[in-house]
Design a protein that fits this description.
The chain has eight helices and nine strands. It has 266 residues and is an alpha/beta fold. It has a single domain, classed as UDP-N-acetylmuramoyl-L-alanine:D-glutamate ligase. It has a nine-stranded mixed sheet, with helices on both faces. β2 and β3 form a beta hairpin. The radius of gyration is 17 Å and the shape is globular. It catalyses: 4-amino-2-methyl-5-(phosphooxymethyl)pyrimidine + ATP = 4-amino-2-methyl-5-(diphosphooxymethyl)pyrimidine + ADP; 4-amino-5-hydroxymethyl-2-methylpyrimidine + ATP = 4-amino-2-methyl-5-(phosphooxymethyl)pyrimidine + ADP + H(+).
């Protein structure tokens, strides 16, 4: 049977991030994608103009509907804007026999807040302990732990701070570092360390990068890959998607989720 991956995240009406990016990634990587919608956003290439959270009961019902009938081989979480939602989703994934990739979304690409300050403690104490892999970017590391990463040398300290909250593995995404000509990420479980490097690409159209990476990792885990194998393959996929990112609207365009599939010509 085709591997099945469930994303629990918000909708991006512009199609570059969130549920839309997750499902595109899953299609491109050969798994069956399913979704639990947590919020609706009015969003485009310029930013987030509005966000409306769904009731916890609706999120629970979507999750149970999918998992109890279809089943999942991996779960990915994205935008969970309130403490109530974070706690409910953490409980759901803890009770599911499948690896969970937690993308602790705090702000959008444009700097718009997507996580209430009151929800931070729930992320630390409920959601991160349920994660097989947590994938914070540098801003999210600071938001969650207070650790500021200014150079590659700080990545190990950041990873240790996140691991204190209980995820099995953490991937510290160093794409926001400005002192290197490479995009450097650190994957570790506190014992083994894997440094992943890719060229820093001169392309501003990177909307959806974090959602895409977390979803790609979930796809690899659903196929039975180890965490290091899944993360390495996901990094390669995202690097290609960033290279092919394209202009859309007047602001920051999305990465190209279908870059490896080719484009039909007419």
């Amino acid at each position: 049977m085709i591997p099945r991956v469930l994303t629990v995240a918000g909708s991006d009406s512009g199609g570059g991030a969130g549920i839309q990016a997750d499902l595109k990634t899953m299609l491109a990587l050969g798994v069956h994608g399913m979704s639990v919608l947590t919020a609706v956003t009015a969003q485009n290439s310029l930013g987030v103009q509005g966000a409306w959270e769904l009731p916890v009961a609706a999120v629970r019902a979507q999750y149970r509907s999918v998992v109890d009938d279809i089943g999942v081989q991996a779960v990915k979480t994205g935008m969970l804007s309130s403490a109530e939602l974070v706690e409910a989703v953490a409980e759901l994934i803890t009770g599911t026999d499948a690896p969970a990739v937690v993308d602790p979304v705090g702000v959008s690409k444009h700097g718009d807040p997507l996580l209430a300050a009151s929800a931070l403690d729930a992320v630390r104490t409920k959601l991160l302990p349920a994660a097989t892999v947590a994938t914070p970017n540098l801003d999210e590391v600071t938001q969650l732990t207070g650790v500021r990463v200014r150079s590659e040398a700080d990545l190990r300290r950041a990873a240790a701070a996140v691991l204190e909250y209980g995820p099995r593995w953490v991937l510290i995404k160093g794409g926001h570092l400005t002192d290197a000509d490479q995009a450097v990420d650190l994957l570790t479980d506190g014992c083994a360390e894997h440094v992943l490097r890719a060229p820093r690409l001169d392309n501003r159209h990177t909307h959806g990068t974090g959602c895409t990476l977390a979803s790609a990792i979930a796809c690899g885990l659903a196929k039975g890959r180890s965490v290091p194998e899944a993360v390495t393959a996901a990094k390669e996929y995202v690097t290609g998607a960033i290279a092919a990112g394209f202009a859309l609207g007047a602001g920051i365009g999305p990465v190209d989720h279908g870059w490896a599939l080719g484009r039909a010509t007419t």
